[in-house]
C-alpha cells in the first residue's frame, strides 16, 4: 500500500538582530507565519523572508520546544527571570543527548541521502529542494540519519529546516555545504540575514567531517563594512549579511566534528534554546572579517562548549542577554576579539546573565582576552562568573570589564547600568600586548562592580613590546586580591561602597 505523507511548513516574515564590535547590529524583529502544505506534490516553498533574531529579552526563554505543526507557533514571549542556577560542575565529556539518539538494534536508523532526492553536489547546481525534501523525510521518520555524503559540494539557498520532528535526527555532514557566492547572487526575494536556519528542533546530533563554507568574502567587502570605509567609517548602503547557521527555539542539540568557515556574519547562533552541546569543532575566518563571531548564544541556557578551535574577526564566543548555565572548556581562541559576555543593556534593555564558566583555555594574538561589555542605560544583572586557568599569548586587554561600551563617540552618560557582581579571575597567566593595560575594570559611575576577585593572575609584557607598560586600571570596582598579582593591582577597592545602590538594582 502506498504510504502518503503530508508535511507542513511555515512561511515567515522577519526583521532580525545581531551584535558585534563592528557596529553592524540588526534591529528588533517580529514573526509572522503561514501554514503551507509541501507534500505529496513536492512543491518547494521559496522563502520571502526568514526568522527574526529576537530583540534582547529580559529573561531566558524556558520553553524551547514548540507546539505541533498543526498549530501556528507564536514568538517566545518574555518570561519571568529565573532564579540563580547552581554552580556547574565540570562534566567528563560533552555527550549528545543519549535518550534521543539511542538505537534499539544495530542498523535500526534509516539513512536518508540527499542524493536520493536529486541533489547533484557539483557546487553549481541549486540543491536546496533536495535538501528540503530529504529533511522532510527524515523529520517524519521514526529514527533517521540525514546524510550529506563526502566528496561532493552542495550549493544550498537560504533555508529553514522546521520541526518538531517525529524523533531525533542525526544530521551527518561529510561533504561541503555552501551558499550562493555573495550578495549579488543572493535571490532578491529571500532574506539576506540568515542562511541555514533550524527552527523548533527537539533532539538533533549534527556531526561529521564535512565543511560549512559561508563564502563570506564578498559580504565582508561591502562598502558599508567598517574596514572598507574611509578611516574605518561605514559607508551608506545595504549591509545585511547572513548568519551561517542559526538555531531558534530548539533544544537538546549537539554539534560535533564540523569545520565552519568564512561566514558572512556570525558562524553559529543560538536564540531561545536550551541543552546545547558543542564539541571538537573548528571555526575559522580572517582576522579582519567583520562581525564574524564564532559561537553566539542569546536567551539560551544549559550550554556546553568543549575542545574547539576558533579564529575569526570578532568574538570567539559571545554570550548575550538571557543566558545562564554556560560552561566553556578547552577552547583555543585567536586571532580574534576574545571571549565575551555581552554586549548587554543596549538601547536601555534589561539583561539577566548568570552562572558562566570559562576554563582550561588559550587565547592568543587577540584584541581582548576575557571581556565583559555593557552599555550605559541598561538594567538587570550579571553574576556568578568564573574565568579560570586561561593562558594568554600576546593578548591586548587580557582582563576587561567595560561598562561604557559604545560603538561611536556619541554615546551619552547615563545613570542606569547592568549590575555586575561575583566575578572570579583565577589562574590567568601569560603575556599581553603593551598597547593596552593588562587589566581594565571600568565599572559604572552609579552602580559599582561588586565582589571582583583576583587569584593567581600573572601577566607579563610580550617580548618585543615597544610601548610604555601601563598600570592596571580600575574605576568603581570593589573586590579582593586572594594572592599577589603580576603586575601589582592597587586600584581594586576593598569593602563595600559607602552609598551602595545594590538594593536599587533591577534584579533578575
Can you tell me the overall shape?
elongated
| Count of separate DSSP helical elements | 3
What share of the residues lie within helices? under 10%
Q: How many DSSP E strands?
A: 32
Secondary structure category = mainly beta
Distance between the termini: 57 Å
Rg, Å, rounded = 23 Å
Strand content: 35-45%
Largest sheet: 19 strands, parallel
Mean pLDDT: 83
Low-confidence runs of at least 5 consecutive residues: 1-18, 24-106
Keywords:
single chain, 508 residues, mainly beta, 19-stranded parallel sheet, eleven-stranded parallel sheet, 3 helices, 39% strand, elongated
3D structure, described in words:
The protein has 508 residues and is mainly beta. It is 4% helix and 39% strand. The protein is built from three helices and 32 strands. The strands form three sheets. The chain has a 19-stranded parallel sheet that branches. The protein starts with 7 loop residues before the first strand and ends in a 27-residue tail after the last strand. The relative contact order is 0.10. The model is unreliable at 1-18 and 24-106 (pLDDT under 50).
Amino acid at each position: 500500500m502506498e504510504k502518503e505523507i503530508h508535511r507542513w511548513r511555515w512561511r515567515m516574515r522577519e526583521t532580525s538582530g545581531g551584535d558585534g564590535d563592528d557596529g553592524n547590529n540588526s534591529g528588533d524583529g517580529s514573526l509572522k507565519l503561514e501554514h503551507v502544505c509541501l507534500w505529496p506534490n513536492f512543491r518547494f516553498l521559496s522563502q520571502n523572508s526568514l526568522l527574526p533574531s529576537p530583540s534582547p529579552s529580559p529573561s531566558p526563554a524556558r520553553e524551547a520546544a514548540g507546539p505541533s505543526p498543526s498549530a501556528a507557533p507564536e514568538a517566545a514571549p518574555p518570561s519571568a527571570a529565573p532564579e540563580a542556577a547552581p554552580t556547574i560542575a565540570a562534566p567528563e565529556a560533552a555527550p549528545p543527548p543519549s535518550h534521543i539518539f539511542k538505537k534499539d538494534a544495530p542498523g535500526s536508523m534509516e539513512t536518508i541521502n540527499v542524493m536520493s532526492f536529486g541533489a547533484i553536489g557539483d557546487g553549481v547546481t541549486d540543491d536546496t529542494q533536495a535538501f528540503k525534501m530529504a529533511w522532510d523525510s527524515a523529520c517524519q521518520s521514526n529514527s533517521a540519519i540525514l546524510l550529506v555524503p563526502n566528496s561532493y559540494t552542495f550549493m544550498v539557498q537560504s533555508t529553514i529546516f522546521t520541526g518538531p520532528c517525529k524523533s531525533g535526527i542525526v544530521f551527518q555532514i561529510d561533504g561541503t555545504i555552501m551558499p550562493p557566492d555573495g550578495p549579488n547572487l543572493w535571490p532578491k526575494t529571500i532574506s539576506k540575514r540568515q542562511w541555514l536556519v533550524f527552527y523548533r528542533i527537539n533532539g538533533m546530533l549534527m556531526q561529521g567531517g564535512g565543511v560549512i563554507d559561508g563564502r563570506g568574502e564578498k559580504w565582508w567587502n561591502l562598502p558599508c563594512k567598517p574596514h572598507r570605509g574611509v578611516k574605518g567609517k561605514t559607508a551608506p548602503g545595504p549591509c545585511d549579511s547572513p548568519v551561517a547557521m542559526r538555531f531558534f527555539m530548539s533544544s537538546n542539540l549537539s554539534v560535533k566534528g564540523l569545520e565552519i568557515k568564512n561566514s558572512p556574519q556570525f558562524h553559529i547562533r543560538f536564540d531561545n534554546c536550551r541543552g546545547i552541546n558543542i564539541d571538537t569543532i573548528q571555526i575559522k575566518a580572517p582576522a579582519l572579517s567583520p562581525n564574524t563571531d564564532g559561537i553566539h548564544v542569546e536567551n539560551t541556557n544549559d550550554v556546553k562548549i568543549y575542545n574547539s578551535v576558533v579564529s575569526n574577526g570578532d568574538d570567539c564566543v559571545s554570550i548575550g542577554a538571557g543566558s545562564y548555565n554556560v560552561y566553556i572548556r578547552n577552547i583555543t581562541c585567536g586571532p580574534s576579539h576574545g571571549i565575551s559576555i555581552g554586549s548587554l543593556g543596549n538601547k536601555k534593555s534589561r539583561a539577566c546573565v548568570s552562572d558562566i564558566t570559562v576554563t582550561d583555555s588559550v587565547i592568543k594574538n587577540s584584541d581582548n582576552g576575557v571581556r565583559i561589555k555593557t552599555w550605559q542605560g541598561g538594567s538587570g544583572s550579571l553574576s556568578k562568573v568564573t574565568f579560570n586557568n586561561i593562558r594568554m599569548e600576546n593578548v591586548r586587554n587580557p582582563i576587561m570589564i567595560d561598562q561604557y561600551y559604545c560603538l561611536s563617540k556619541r554615546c551619552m552618560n547615563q545613570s542606569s547600568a547592568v549590575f555586575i557582581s561575583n566575578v572570579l579571575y583565577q589562574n590567568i597567566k601569560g603575556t599581553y600586548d603593551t598597547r593596552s593595560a593588562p587589566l581594565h575594570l571600568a565599572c559604572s559611575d552609579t552602580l559599582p562592580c561588586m565582589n571582583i576577585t583576583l587569584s593567581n593572575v600573572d601577566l607579563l609584557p610580550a617580548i618585543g613590546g615597544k610601548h610604555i607598560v601601563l598600570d592596571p586600571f580600575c574605576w568603581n570596582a570593589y573586590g579582593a586580591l586572594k594572592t599577589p598579582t603580576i603586575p601589582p593591582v592597587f586600584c581594586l577597592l576593598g569593602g563595600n561602597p559607602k552609598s551602595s545602590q545594590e538594593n536599587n538594582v533591577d534584579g533578575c
